[in-house]
Every structure is written in C-alpha cells, then in structure tokens.
Amino acid sequence: MKKDIISLLDLTKNDFDIFFKRALELKKRFNQGIVDMPLKGKSLGLIFDKQSTRTRVAFETAMIQLGGHPIFMRSQDTQVSRDEPVKDTARVLSRYIDCLVMRTFDHSLVEEFAANSSIPVINALTDFFHPCQILSDLMTIIEKKNSYDNVKIVWVGDGNNVANSWINAASVLGLDLVVACPEKYSVNKDIVNNALKKNKHNIVFTDDPKTAVKNADVIYTDVWASMGEEEETDRKHKAFQGFQVNKELVSKAKDDVIVMHCLPAHRGEEIAEDILETKNSVFWDQAENKRHMHKAILETLIIHNTKLRGVQSG
C-alpha cells in the first residue's frame, strides 16, 4: 500500500525513526561531499497555494540533489481552477510524476488528492497541519539533545497548524509536550481529541507560559497570526501579551534550553530580537534540516511506491 504523509498520525513510531536515521545519514554524507542520486529519472510535483521560502526550496533542492526533477505549479495553473474534479487531476498526475507535494489552505483538498492518487502525496502545510516541519524539527532536537526521549518540549503561542502537528507527534512518540496558548486561541478540540486517542498521558495544556517553560529542554514558538489570518493580527497582539519568547521567559527554562521557530519570525512580536541571536537559538539549523529530512521522506516514499508498483504490474 502506498504511503502518504497527510498528518503525523499517518506514521508509526518506526516510520519516524526510519526518517530520522536516514535524514541524519544523508546530511552526514552530503557534508562529506558524497553524492546520492537514488531518485534519478524520478519527478516530483509541487502544487502550492500558500507562499513559501524554506519548504518549497527545501523540497526542490532535495529532489534535485537526489537526482530527480521538481515541477512547480500553482492551483491556478492547473485545470482544477477551471472546475476539473480533483480526482481527475489526481489520476492524471499519477501517470506523470512519482510524488506530489501540496501546500494549501483546505486540508480536505490534500486528503482528496491522496485518496485518488496512486503516488505518494505529502502535506507541505495546510490550515490544519504541517507534518514535515515537525519531522525536521525533531531531527534537530535529536542532533542537539541526542534523543527525543526525556526531552521536555514546550510550545508557546498560537494553537495553529504547527502546534497541531506537535500534538500528533507527541501522541505517536510519547513526547513530553506542554502546549501553552491563550485560552481563546488554544488548539482545536477535535484535533486534540483525535491525537489523544493514541496517547493522552504525556501532553499538558495550559494558558500560563511562565509555568509551562520551567525545566524546559526546548521552547518552540511561531507567528501569532498565520497566513490567511492577517485580519486577526491586532486582536491577537492583545491576547498574546505575556506569550513572547524573550530573555525573561527563557531564563525560567534549563540553562541549555534550545529555542526553536519554524520561521519566518516576526521579530519583536512572538519572539524578541535578542533571542534570535543567542547561543540557545537553533533556527538556522532547523531551516537547513528541512532539506535533509525532505530527502529522507522523498527517497523513502518514492522508492517504496516504485517497488509496490513493480509488484502490482508483475
């Protein structure tokens, strides 16, 4: 059966560990100047409706460095924008490309593509989830802390798609996760309940960031107003007073705490300018690791599906 990554609940703990091991190996080999091209002759489609710097470039360079070819599209460039059924576009693209990466607003659109494609479909961000971001972030935590076990991770900020994916990861891996959000901007209850069906003993929710970060190994934040929520900016700035990741907040965590942000950062809002430049910050490592993790994801899913298609055609 083909493997998609629509949310992190699609993965098992073993899947996570396979991705971490391979991404770290590929990064080491890349830094040694070793060229790996297991996807030579393969093509990756990218359909993006939301702006992107890191995710798009990371996927494109990952595919190129693995020997394949990325093809970038916007939805308005496809016949979906002229009311072709999604299932028809999905079936056609499955005959042209070997994997599809989607970044869009409506999560159900990615689900529909996946349901009607014979190739792997990867969620590169929807309004609900950002699974590949968390995979690369956990890779960074493994690099800095040697493991994700017994590591206290604290989310401070909006209950957005990145927070949702942290909750999903915690439910699968048993992460020690604290989620601190203002009450009015907490994580969607349906998403929480769905994740907690797997593991509900290791995730704490609070509206007190100062208490949340005590003894934290990792503090993670993101913008307060996500793409498409610009009209919420002023209201959120008022609601999120006290939730800025700054020196005062970081001082309550462990001395060797690492501070993470998926970027882009709104300096002076969710995170103080000086925190971005401290020894505790690992933002640039996070950004770099997206490419290596995307390599591991693409290699694993495409090669698995190629073997599967070979068995089916035989």
Secondary structure blueprint with pairings:
Elements: H1 13-31, E1 43-48, H2 54-65, E2 69-73, H3 86-96, E3 99-103, H4 107-115, E4 121-123, H5 131-145, E5 152-156, H6 161-173, E6 176-180, H7 189-196, E7 203-206, H8 209-212, E8 218-221, H9 233-239, H10 247-250, E9 258-261, H11 273-276, H12 283-313
Helix pairs in contact: 1-5, 1-12, 2-12, 3-4, 5-6, 5-12, 6-7
Key features of this structure:
alpha/beta; Rossmann fold; 5-stranded parallel sheet; 314 residues; 4-stranded parallel sheet; single chain; globular
State the end-to-end CA separation: 15 Å
The share of residues in extended strands comes to: 5-15%
Count the strands?
9
* Total of helices: 12
- The residue-averaged pLDDT reads 94
| Order of neighbouring strands in the sheet with most strands | 7-6-5-8-9
Q: Fraction of residues in helices?
A: 40-55%
CATH class category label of the largest domain:
Alpha Beta
CATH architecture of the largest domain: 3-Layer(aba) Sandwich
Helix/strand class: alpha/beta
Uncertain spans, ≥5 residues at pLDDT below 50? none
Radius of gyration: 19 Å
Number of domains: 2
CATH homologous superfamily identity of the largest domain: Aspartate/ornithine carbamoyltransferase
- Mind describing the biggest β-sheet? 5 strands, parallel
The backbone outline, from C-alpha atoms, is globular
SSE order:
HEHEHEHEHEHEHEHEHHEHH
User: Which fold name is given in CATH as the topology of the largest domain?
Assistant: Rossmann fold
Q: What do you see in this structure?
A:
The radius of gyration is 19 Å and the shape is globular. It has 314 residues and is of the alpha/beta class. The protein has 12 helices and 9 strands. The protein is 44% helix and 13% strand. The chain has helices at 13-31, 54-65, 86-96, 107-115, 131-145, 161-173, 189-196, 209-212, 233-239, 247-250, 273-276, 283-313; strands at 43-48, 69-73, 99-103, 121-123, 152-156, 176-180, 203-206, 218-221, 258-261. Helix 1 packs across helix 5, helix 1 packs across helix 12 (283-313) and helix 5 (131-145) packs across helix 12. It has 2 domains: 8-129 and 287-309, Aspartate/ornithine carbamoyltransferase (Rossmann fold, 3-Layer(aba) Sandwich), CATH 3.40.50.1370; 133-286, Aspartate/ornithine carbamoyltransferase (Rossmann fold, 3-Layer(aba) Sandwich), CATH 3.40.50. The strands form 2 sheets. The protein has a 5-stranded parallel β-sheet, with helices on one face. The protein has a 4-stranded parallel β-sheet with strand order 2-1-3-4, with helices on both faces. The two termini are 15 Å apart.
